[in-house]
Design a protein that fits this description.
alpha+beta, globular
Length: about 100
């Protein structure tokens, strides 16, 4: 398995007038993401910076294609969120 960094950004269905947890389909999105975290595919994830414009996930998977398959189950993919990068991450530093 390889560690990947996944970057997602707001997609075309994002309602700028509502916060993240009030977007259409939040409960379904959260259930999919929680399941991916529970199974160990998503190691870490959440919004970057001070808002909810960009999101980063650290994912353990066999390939970038496998990650795209996992995210295809997310009802937000290509709607509220667009995956803009899936890149392998070579970890050189790690605390004990």
């Amino acid at each position: 398995m390889t560690i990947f960094v996944v970057i997602r950004e707001r997609g075309p269905a994002w309602d700028e007038a509502r916060p993240m947890r009030e977007q259409d389909g939040w409960d379904e999105h959260a259930a999919v993401m929680d399941a991916l975290a529970d199974e160990g595919s998503i190691v870490l994830g959440g919004p970057l910076g001070d808002g909810d414009h960009r999101f980063m996930h650290i994912v353990e998977a066999a390939s970038a294609a496998a990650i795209r398959d996992l995210l295809a189950a997310d009802p937000w993919e290509a709607r509220q969120l667009t995956t803009v990068a899936v890149e392998p991450w070579e970890i050189l530093l790690r605390s004990p």
